[in-house]
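Q: What changes when 3-acetylpyridine adenine dinucleotide is included in the input?
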Amino acid sequence: MSAVQQIDAIIVGAGFSGMYQLLSLRDKLGLSAKVLEAGDGVGGTWYWNRYPGARCDSESHSYMFYFSKELVHEWEWSERYPQQPEILRYLNYVADKFKLRPDIALNTRMQTAKYDEATNRWLVTTDKGDQYSAKYLITGVGCLSSANMPKIEGISDFKGKSYHTGQWPHEGVDFTGKRVAVIGTGSTGIQAIPEIAKQAAHVTVFQRTANYSLPARHHPLSDEFKQYAKEHADDIYKVMTTNTNGHPFSIADRSVFDLSDEEREAIFEEQWKMGGFQFRAAFKDILTSQEANDKAADFIRKKIREIVHNPKTAELLADIDHPFAAKRPPIDADYFETYNRDNVELISIRETPIERITAQGIKTTDHQYEFDIIVFATGFDAMTGSLVKMDITGRDQRTLKDYWYAGPRTYLGLQVPGFPNMFTITGPGSPSVLCNMPPAIEQHVNWITDCIRHMQQKGLERIETTEQASDYWQQQVDDAANATLLPKAKHSWYLGANIPGKPQVFMPYAGGLARYRAICDEMVAKNYQGFEFTH
Ligand code: N01
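A: The predicted holo structure follows.
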């Protein structure tokens, strides 16, 4: 163990969140800060998720920082939806431009963080043997960073290669001539399957829950659009930060039932051709009225049946058990079309469940399949997984893991009672994953930075939210979710339902980014209502 280093803030994670938080504390407030990052590069999600087809589902001109006009003008995206390597290049560019690297410790995992009441400091240890004493502990660990490897019997018996998409090898995987299994048909599986199918000898997709997906309609950005995005950056940012989802478009102010069947169908058709999440935003009631949602869902089911030639496969893909967009809808490049290839087959593990993994492949209740490679596109222990995996102990020996035993408890997704001077960027209880992430992250980092500035100016040493504030906020989170169809997706990771044994609590705040921002600002205006300061 090395000597304890005194520092103002320890930040965990060098993705969008951690890097902007470092820059803000260091350059705006003049504080000392260190980012601890387990990977050997910056980028967070985009460092780890390198599977074939990995891209963002937010349009590139909105999937970026807006805090620096210079950065907005310098950086140029090449495609409508950015691919993983391009986003990783962007985040590396940010790290270099703002000279962040000297304050980022790579290949360094935070091992423990313990709050010491007597000194009002966090003692942080790392797997490298470093020790820090920090006034603030700020987590920027991402909402989807703890890979979910399913507990299937025999998983270690498999003699071929297996990969989780969220921990993809940096050297890539050569699928040429291979017999490949893909388990999982969420956003990741839906992106990866068409790309793997182009290379592999044969792909067998194991689907547990059928999923809606919208065409992405990828295309390179024209010079005119690039110019437009730069010239109108302020207007674009205003739209992103004053609407529900942080995207550069707003939800239309019309009901599905304002129009005749023909008019509505024409709009769905137009959105389908245009591609992307705008489909969901075409009507205001798609996520609040089951009847309205049924119209959108029926349209997509019709499209699946039109695209997929094999009627049995089409039925398996269209047999979707939840409302459209109650799970985050994937956007794809020829996902449904891929099932028309001779080398792709779909197995419903609802009909014939996986019994075990064997040395040669996968055994379902009616067949033994042989594979060279198994790809687990099985998602993440979302929102809380990475936080509770870290050994964080707050006041009175309270561990985060125990305190969140029955589900996360936060105030505004920013602080947890019993964990003074700890902030969680895009923590559970904030809009986070229901939004385009960068504007949600910028808002959180700005709020935390302003709060710390306030503490410095007023000579305040400690901030902690209360149990009462967290109870109040949990009710707001529940009410916001229950005003939508989101809780109706029973297998969703929003609810923690994808992880066996995880308490089922709807975790993100579904009231929208604009409303959430207003609430955060209002609490500040009311002298930081819900937080207690100590001199
Ligand atoms: O994970 P998921 P993901 N046996 O949890 C199945 C973001 N993202 O990595 O639905 C068999 O959605 C599981 O089945 P079921 C985006 O926010 C964004 O795909 O639980 N199957 C499901 O089919 C997204 O929502 C982008 O029944 C098992 C799949 O695995 C989030 O990340 C791209 C299983 C997991 O789907 C997560 O997406 C990629 C088991 N034991 C991801 N366990 C873009 O920006 C799980 N499954 C475009």
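Observations recorded in class: The mean pLDDT is 97.
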